[in-house]
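agent> Task received from the user: take the single chain below, predict its 3D structure, and emit structure tokens. No templates, no multimer pairing.
agent> Plan: (1) validate residues, (2) run structure prediction, (3) serialize to tokens, (4) report one or two observations.
agent> Step 1 OK, no nonstandard residues flagged.
tool_call: predict_structure(input=
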Amino acid sequence: MDRSIYDHMARHAASHWWYVARRAVLASLIAREVPLPASPRILEIGCGTGHNLDMLGRFGTVDALELDDAARALASERLGRPVLPARLPELPPLPAAPYDLIALLDVLEHVEDDRGALNAIAGQLAPGGSLLVTVPQHQWMWTGHDVANHHFRRYSKASLRAVFEGSGLQLRLLDSFNSLLFPLAVADRLASRLTGREGKDDAEPPGPVNALFKRIFSLEAGLVGRVPMPPGLSLVALASPAQALRPHG
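)
tool_result: status=success, residues=249
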């Protein structure tokens, strides 16, 4: 990603409606839909500046990987121990593998070989473990924001499902989220294209608007994983290692 994206993440991850509400939605989903053993081992791949680590740490002991040097330094400070470098689909020796939960949050779209990345991750999951994935949805919503973030693609449900095929992972859940604000986001993207301000849609809005958006998006914490969601800005998936076929006889 451009350096400015990491700088924005470091400044706004504690206050911007998208970061704050997304953490709430994902924490609720993990609590309800991810079976975890006692003392679970958790890995976040592509942790950025570490803004998800405290949330994930509520569920177990967290390790993390991050490619960018400056972001990794900030994440290491937040985590209290070193965050390791990694460029998917290659993974370094991991300190606590296999993991009970691996989080890949808005990372897969940055990886050219997305299927290879899932293949590599599958080998780091404990039996019965879970992979939590979020990605941006709808290729037709591509803007300069995606270019600045060095995305290779946005996903549909069909294209993300296809990436999982043959990965050694079996999907348990695949749905949209950030759906309640989706009509407003579509209108904003269309206006951005007309006015030529594409790529600036991640700025933190004024306080009252930021609070309103945070409240609306946070309502999805009680919905995602429980009811089918209408189209949204993002997709969320949960997958587990595919069970080996039992021989007949």
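agent> Step 4: summary for the user.
The chain has one domain: 3-240.
agent> Done.
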